[in-house]
């Protein structure tokens, strides 16, 4: 599957700007991690792009609809990673891609939420301030802190290092993502 084909699936299923921006941000983070780890860049980017593609239209069936679409297209590895991007679904983490998607999803959204409440947005945001906000349960309350922690553990990255990596990626794309 090409990224163009994946983007067509995304835009067919997802119309809301916020969810499209989330998909793009996780796509960029996954792409950057793939480059860093010498993994399949397109595969990782597509997993990031499509992980929530069915959420808007089929929230009660998420992620089963997008997983089914991907399996029909022969994209089993991406489909499995998407089926495992939430620990409470009890899907085994078999590949580094599975672990990376789990590790990047919630924390990327949380970092963006942190940047939106700052006068300088993403500029100057640090892992220390993100971790401080993680401890504040009322801030971005829908973000499951346990998922953030478990994701970093499974992906075998230290949380501050992971957060700084993501901040770096988001900073590179701050204009596109509306973080200026």
UniProtKB/TrEMBL annotation:
Gene3D superfamilies to which the protein is assigned, alphabetical: Hypothetical protein af1432
Source species taxonomy: Bacteria, Pseudomonadati, Bacteroidota, Cytophagia, Cytophagales
Pfam families, per the entry: HD
InterPro entries attached to this UniProt entry: HD_domain
The protein, known as: HD domain-containing protein
Source domain of life: Bacteria
Limits of the HD domain: 20-92
